[in-house]
Amino acid sequence: MVDEEAVLKSLRTVLDPDLKLDIVTLGMIKDLKIEGRKVSFNLELTTPACPFNKEIEESARRAVQSVPGVAEVEMRVSARVWSARPSAAGFNELSNVKNVIAVASGKGGVGKTTVSINLACSLALAGAKVGLVDADIYGPMIPKIVNIVQAPRLIANNRVDPARIMLGIKVMSLGLFVDDNTAVIWRGPLVASAVKQLLTEAAWGEVDYLVVDLPPGTGDASLTLAQTIPLTGVLVVSTPQAAAAVIAAKALRMFRRLGISVLGVVENMSHYVCPSCGAASPIFGESAVEKMAEELDIPVLGRIPLIPDVSVNYDKGLPIVMADPSSPASKALQEMARNVAARISILAHQSKAKAE
């Protein structure tokens, strides 16, 4: 017979690289059974998008195989996304939403919507349940960029069933309810109310990650979201130029003053990749984002190259991670999504540790 304690002791040597704790202590080993020389268990990962999932799986299997007497290992792998956001008291509509990620920028034109859509798609590709909110009231672009598979519809209790796009992602946007040619001419209170309605009047159901694409700057939409909706954290997008980095830093400081966790910064259009030879060129010169991130003590979670295929495929209604998963931009965006998921798992663990 294989000793159960010996199996657990061996599994305790496997550490989660992000959380710096062993997988037994983290509660990732479920339903451990020993039948003669066969060991079976379920490895429950903290997120399907963790960058170290394969490493953890392989290490766990090797650890059990190394236990004396073990002849067969049956390991089932699943993932249960941890929630890292404060309680949604007063927002029953969001009670089944585990994490709300705000994607912000100091200025327009830095590719915030590009990052938001591809972040949502990358998380969904990994197996997570994802929602996407277009909170840019004056310029809602998400409905124009993605193919809507199912339009939003009114359901019971005056709730709205969100639209569906590829991968089953649920979407809410003012652009789904306002004609394309109609300009939205609203003052601050109406903007704030619209953002809140997009989030709280939708029947989201179970969602692991709700990505909210904010308008640029630090105006009413950003303040409403930060002050009324329990957020997991904010991801700030910037381009390499010093002017963009300075303005992005202002947005970061605003969210910090409001008590919102900053997940990190993403440098979009980091460099140009030649489609012919693959050479990378820093067309905007030396990046100022790295220095800004270091001064504010936040991680750079992704550096997204500038390639023409991103906009070309947008015109076809396909985010680049769906249109060409092997492109340099897709790989960088997928890595960014894994880094975001890892940061959220770390915040969730820290929150759980404080509660205990």
Task: Name a few traits of the molecule.
nine-stranded mixed sheet; alpha/beta; 11 helices; GMP Synthetase, Chain A, domain 3; Rossmann fold; 356 residues
Walk me through what this model shows.
With 356 residues, this protein is of the alpha/beta class. It folds into 2 domains: 76 residues, GMP Synthetase, Chain A, domain 3; 264 residues, P-loop containing nucleotide triphosphate hydrolases (Rossmann fold, 3-Layer(aba) Sandwich), CATH 3.40.50. The strands form 3 sheets. Strands 4, 5, 8, 9, 10, 11, 12, 13 and 14 form a 9-stranded mixed β-sheet that branches. The longest helix is centred in the C-terminal third of the chain and has 28 residues. The radius of gyration is 22 Å and the shape is globular. The protein starts with a helix and ends with a helix.
Helices and strands in order, then pairings?
Layout: H1 4-11, E1 29-35, E2 38-45, H2 53-65, E3 72-79, E4 100-105, H3 112-125, E5 130-134, H4 142-145, E6 153-154, E7 160-161, E8 163-164, E9 170-173, H5 188-200, E10 209-213, H6 220-228, E11 233-238, H7 242-257, E12 262-273, E13 280-281, H8 289-296, E14 300-306, H9 309-314, H10 320-323, H11 328-355
Parallel strand pairs: 2-3, 4-10, 4-11, 5-9, 5-10, 11-12, 12-14
Antiparallel strand pairs: 1-2, 6-7, 8-9, 12-13
Helix pairs in contact: 3-11, 5-6, 7-8
